[in-house]
Amino acid sequence: MNTKPLLDYISKYITLTDEEEVFFISKLTYRKYLKGQYIVQQGDICDKTSFLISGCSKTFYVDDKGQEHIVLFAIEDWWVSDIGSFITQTPADYNVQCIENTEFIQFSYQDQELLLDKIPKLERLFRKMIEKALVSTQKRIVRGFSLNAKEQYLYFKQHYPTIEQRVPQYMIASYLGITKEFLSKIKSQILLEQ
Amino acid sequence: MNTKPLLDYISKYITLTDEEEVFFISKLTYRKYLKGQYIVQQGDICDKTSFLISGCSKTFYVDDKGQEHIVLFAIEDWWVSDIGSFITQTPADYNVQCIENTEFIQFSYQDQELLLDKIPKLERLFRKMIEKALVSTQKRIVRGFSLNAKEQYLYFKQHYPTIEQRVPQYMIASYLGITKEFLSKIKSQILLEQ
DNA sequence: AATAAATGTTAATCTAGATTAACATGATTT
DNA sequence: AAATCATGTTAATCTAGATTAACATTTATT
Description:
The structure is a homodimer. Chain A is about 50% helix and about 20% strand. In chain A, strands 1-8-3-6 form a 4-stranded antiparallel sheet. In chain A, strands 2-7-4-5 form a 4-stranded antiparallel sheet. In chain A, helix 8 crosses helix 9. With about 190 residues, chain A is of the alpha+beta class. Chain A binds a DNA duplex (30 and 30 nucleotides) through helix 9.
């Protein structure tokens, strides 16, 4: 198991002793998913939090009409889970599905409790992780208010150029809350402008 | 300063020793705002987190066209701040304004750091607070996907009956992301159905 | 290489909700 | 009790973006 990316990530927030690091690693599991596989399915209880090592995933909600709404793409160094479901151990609202073959390092809900018990300074790490998630959610809400579809697409393209390349266009449309047809229109418009 | 509501709130998540409690209280300040006053203004740096003791506030974003978008009403026992601005000490995206005379207990960014230093178990409290905020944000996003305007209004009315009574209708419309005219239409429709 | 499946494009049409404007009511202020 | 201000209502019109459908292209499978 290649724990380096995760340990590097963690070291930005807290410093573990050797002993703590060993215990921490002992609670981690490595898992490889194939393209199309689900890490979380809406309705299930999300029993693990996953740190993405390689690949790409999408987090999305399917409404009554079967419409998919993507809320997040994750790539290297991102955490994924349905946080609401994980925290309260109730059914998940969201799905997380791999859109490439994807590797994760994961820990279970129970092991998170053990980890927090044994290494209280992880509280700080988890706080920081959740803060980051909350901030990016709130920033995205603000973009939804202040930018039109085209501006949101340009923002996405500029800030996540890798994702824009890796992910099919209809998924980007779903992420932006527009149809693929409309995104297509936007893209041709942008081309004309240049 | 009436710290009881806050201490009661905290005791749901952690237990402070007497000494810790004294130190904690020493870093709190009490402040009364008049109706219309701002706790946070977008563009300012949000330097404090506020726990609402009595009254009511709205958190909202004003777009380029001057349009107000309410994202949260807060009443007794809720925390308010622009979390992104508070954490990163960068300009706030949101405004928080009192819609009644309102009392808060507050602590500053600097004192939060002091508090976390002296009482590490507060990490857990703050983690839990932010988890709650993130979960309710994500739940609200799901409602946005799965419910139409009328269903969202009914959800709001059912879950926050107090707020529905206290707050002018045009603010509820803004919270629901619709015009007051349309909310009015919805309400008359609901009346007809009964 | 041929076929099938997935994804993208174009263009016509549709619709939920927004906008506008004129009037109504209820609450404050003088 | 007028006058003013805040909020609500009704109804006509407008529009951003959605939907549909037919076709095009790219990618995966045989």
